[in-house]
Amino acid sequence: MPRPTGRAGHWKESLPPERAYKRRAGSATPTLEQDRAAGGRDRRAVALGDGRYARASIALKLYRRTRRIRAYLRWSQDGSTRERYVCEVDRATRGENLAEAWRQARGMGLVSDRPLPADSRASSTSVRAVMRANRGKDTGPELALRKLLYRRGLRYRVDTRPIPEIRRRADLVFSGPRVAVFVDGCFWHGCPEHYRAATRNAEFWQDKIEGNKNRDVETTEALRSAGWAVIRVWEHEAPESAAELIAHEVQARQAEARSKPTGVDAPARGDGH
Asked: Same domain, yes or no, for 170 and 249?
């Protein structure tokens, strides 16, 4: 008797591809991956009662017998791990499946937004999560990019001035080939795709973001005038694509320097993006 197919819980004809449920080497850290899929760290809250919350994660499990992927919500409570079945997922990639599971968990009332602190300037928990995730150095996108570049054999300095006389710091600096890399957070640098203006203290934040954007332009122009290649990467960009772009620029400048006679400076090149 043939096995039924095409309905949730029944048999499928073939196993889903590994990219639909397994984490890839060199991908974003587990925490960043979950934050992105849920729409922000503070959107991963499970209410425990008495004003307490736990931060949950979604686990994807492949059931080989039925050839289906199931999503489970996990969180820690009173020293033990709790787990709740959410749904079956059937998207093409792990990221899409995680996002779908978070949507389902929210619709079922299993997770909610963690309440904003009374002194928060953010207009929502999602805005606050973005603001917190993109402060300072060693952010998730930076760490993912650095890991990929290091695996390629590239070496760099972190969070330093490309030119000591210019009081601007880059996230990654390749001193020899003179390549400066900035990993720009979508909120703090006004990403045209993902920036959402705050509604609380709107004028303050508008001035803050516009000031950051103007400073970015000034920094890029100053470094390029001094012969540096400047590459700007948005935090939402795939780290693999960014690493490919950076490696190409660094290696091209290194090759150009080797081909020049001793004592001749290589001309400024590359606009980055």
From this structure: yes
DSSP, residue by residue, 23-80: PPTT---HHHHHHHHHTSGGG-EEEEETTEEEE-EEEEEEETTTTEEEEEEEEEETTE
**Is there a domain that residue 13 lies in?**
no
pLDDT value, residue 187: 82
Whether 135 and 85 map to the same domain: the answer is: no
DSSP 4: P
CA 156, CA 167: separation in Å to the nearest integer?
A: 19
Beta pairing class for 57-63 and 52-55: unpaired
The pTM (predicted TM-score) of the whole model is: 0.52
Helix (H, G, I), strand (E, B) or coil at 62: strand
pLDDT digits (tens, 9 = 90+) for 121-130: 554 555 555 5
Q: What are phi and psi of 130, to 5 degrees?
A: -65, -45
**pLDDT tens-digit map of 241-258:** 999 999 999 999 999 988
- Domain assignment present for residue 118? The answer is no
Domain span including residue 193: 130-259
As for how many domains the chain has, the answer is 2
Q: Are residues 151 and 103 in the same domain?
A: no
Range in 75-84, 109-118, 261-270 the model is least confident about: 261-270
Indicate the residue among 74, 107, 140 that finishes a domain: 107
Long-range contacts, 201-208 (Cβ 8 Å, 24+): 201/121, 204/121, 205/121
